[in-house]
Amino acid sequence: MIVLDQTLLFHLEDDKTNRGVEFFLPEDCRALRFECEYSPKFIEDTALSLRAVRASIGRYVPRYQLPQYAQNLKMGETLVNLLTFSLDHEGIYLGCAHRHAAHQVHTLSAAGSSPGFVRHGATAGHWRAVINVHSITSPEVAYRLIVSALREGENP
Amino acid sequence: MIAYKSLEMHSHTLHSDGTFTVEALCRACKARELDGVALTDHNTMSGWEDLLPSLEAETLPVVRGIEWTTFYGHMLVLGADEYVDWRLATPDTIDDCARAVHAANGVVGIAHPYALGSPFCTGCHWEFNVRDWRNVDYVEVWSEQFPVLNPINELALQFWTDLLNRGHRLAAANGRDWHGRDAERFHMPVTYLGVEGGVVNTRTARDALRAGRTYVTSGPALSLAAEQKGRAFGLGESLRPGDANLRWALDTTARAAQWEGFGIVPREIALVQNGAPVAAAPCGGAPVERGGFTLPLWPGWLRLEVLGDYMGKTGQLLAFTSPIYVDG
Fold first, then answer.
1. Order of strands, sheet of A82-89, starting from the edge strand that comes earlier in the sequence
2. What percent of chain B has pLDDT over 70?
3. ipTM value of the model?
4. Considering the entire predicted model, what is its pTM?
């Protein structure tokens, strides 16, 4: 049973923010399944990346140390968007999937949850997924979240 | 009775972006001859569920922690009895957040304060507006591998020293920020914590950090104590201004297999008071069971530093203690 299927759009002004998505589970289930996917992951405009790197490194590195960061100044193409997923149930924090992959699937149940989330029953009530927008470096990032409830005997 | 034990203070597993299982992390730390490890996954404590008593008994004790991986800085939270929400941390709410961690009985440490921030690594650079430093217990002065040569640690050492000079009392720590099995042999300094009864657990580690009983070393084990008017004072404790005897020792045999081969040779022991060296003694790489300085102390702080050779470079900082304080 799909409980939520929502695509959220994030822009540069959403950098360093959290956005909550609430959903209601009407009955106790065996497990919840969360499929998260966002795009783009990488900044393909290497010239743009390089400009961003060169413009910002002086905020962190004193001039006398800059030669030690020569490699960083060459690797603008590695800049990424980073959005992670955290979860609450009835006000209880259940964990976070702090990983870099742009496509992730997580399950949550009393018997055991995916790494990053504590064991917790897929019980009826108010749930809140929170998209943690660590870094937006593209003009727009699309994030799709699909939440499915699995009853006894059901598999994803 | 306080005894100093070696720990890795910053580590990650599959529960965040590490590649270790919790068990593999424990075994890797055991192989490094550590006495304990702090499990500090990014924004989650789910790894604690994998800490079976049999695993800790077979490998080593694990300090329960979490790394607040916020947008404006990474903050290590160890030993909190209740979860405090990392998502509430903004530059101007950090005092409230750290105060809430203290209220939950946790300790607060600033992780890699001078790592590159956005767009390289969002949140990796400490950009919070801390106004009340009483809410911060320690600074990860050394981080990553080969920290002696890492330029971010030179800045972090100055950051910590400046805070001490402003009268704040903060312990020092090293954190490898270990994410997975090493492809090759890396040098891995450690933090020694002065734990009650020599027992490492979440409570004793928390107490040691809160009390300032720590030192950071690339290898040799240290001790520093002050004697004044018949009383002895250890790291983190406060004595009165005036003359004192400073007693120190250097053990170059402790965990030697873990750091030999990296060209680490202690050459000088220095006592630093309020940021300036006030006494020094040469040493030639051999253990020193009992060294000492007698000198006048004035209000502020003092720490011991070990200088010497590191991977072919001379005059490098090899180890340093958290301060002993001198009341005003």
1. A17-25, A125-135, A82-89, A92-97
2. 100
3. 0.95
4. 0.96
